[in-house]
Amino acid sequence: MDTMIISVKAIEVLDSRGNPTVEVEVVLGDGSWGRAIVPSGVSTGTHEALELRDGDPQRYLGKGVTQAVNNVNTRIAEALVGMDAVEQMAIDMIMLALDGTPSKSVLGANAIMGTSLAVAKAAASAVGMPLYRYLGGTYAHTLPVPMMNILNGGLHTGWETTDAQEFMVMPLGAPSFAEGLRWGADIYHSLRNVINKKGYSGLIGDEGGYAPAVRTNEEAVEIILEAIEKAGYRPGEQVAIALDPAASEFYDEKEGIYFLRTENLKLSSQEMVGFWMDWIKKYPIVSIEDGLAQDDWEGWKLMTEVAGDRIQIVGDDLLVTNASRVKRAISEKACNSLLVKINQIGTLTEAMEAMTLCQHHGWTAVVSHRSGETEDATIADLAVAMNTGQIKTGAPARSDRVAKYNELLRIEAELGSTARYAGWNALKH
């Protein structure tokens, strides 16, 4: 076994939106190799690490990533060739030092992340371990509850439907991941029938969920509840609802108000919290992600104060998988869960640091995809490695989403009798 890095190469490939992204391949001395592809978000947080794009309007409407690819093939490769791939933290620290900026704006977070993940995959291959075992050790055994985005809205649908961006189902009462996935697929197909019967179009959004032009935000929840029941499951007992309103997208920073277009409502921070509390009391909602804007810290603290003992309050744009922002949120009691997106921070080491911090303070963590995804299924392994018990990776549709679910099915089969499905325990914090 020779785990010395002998080659680091990147190319430009496409994501699920047809936009370019970075693919990195790392080869080791014994011939072992790892490959990773970087996803991309559309509703990105202000505090995320920088995704380096070329800006050349003659190529991919300015979204090309040749600069990031070149950074991998030159500066990053020169720094990493000859290093031992099992030294993940040291390798990630070298790339961070090489970039030298908090936002990864010199090399690009996409260049750094692709390399970081490819190194981990190569090392896992060399030592003969699946990635989840390599990263998580012998205690990596928990299969996550899928948080399935089956109805899309907000920015992901060009504001043609709801103001809230994602309406999700969680099969918490299932006995296994495989069954949970089946329940979710049943509900997804049932939802299409419900939508069609109501005379709405069955168009599909970025993450595979349906995007009917419903009249109100609340109607979206009611349609999903109907779909759950028609699929043969009990809402609130077997299947619960999770939301990602992506409130930063409908927050007017200048006026300091939240504007819900479908209801023509203008709400203060306190009123927005009250709006969600009404929903929590009315519907079987167990998790709300980004129910407030990314810098509305006072609103987040109020939400946690009034609802934190009832539901999971997940920070995405607020925290951007950044340990320093997680520390602040813990100190100020601004939420109780972290949405983990590796490309928000840029390295595997930093993402795992943020996740570990959450676990040490009794928070939950939800490993997540991005709206612009790829066939790369690394996040499935990461969810099991860290025993997070939750994964958010879209509807049970489109190969870029299903790739993660299929990988989890393989992992569950491989773990056999030692596999544990998180179920309702996933929400405990």
From TrEMBL:
Gene3D superfamilies: Enolase-like C-terminal domain, Enolase-like, N-terminal domain. Substrate binds at residues 156, 166, 289, 316, 368-371, 392. Its cofactor is Mg(2+). Keywords: Cytoplasm, Glycolysis, Lyase, Magnesium, Metal-binding, Secreted. It comes from the Bacteria. Its EC number is 4.2.1.11. Binds a second Mg(2+) ion via substrate during catalysis. Its main location: cytoplasm. InterPro entries: Enolase (IPR000941), Enolase-like_C_sf (IPR036849), Enolase-like_N (IPR029017), Enolase_C (IPR020810), Enolase_CS (IPR020809), Enolase_N (IPR020811). Catalyzes the reversible conversion of 2-phosphoglycerate (2-PG) into phosphoenolpyruvate (PEP). It is essential for the degradation of carbohydrates via glycolysis. This is Enolase. It comes from Candidatus Brevifilum fermentans.
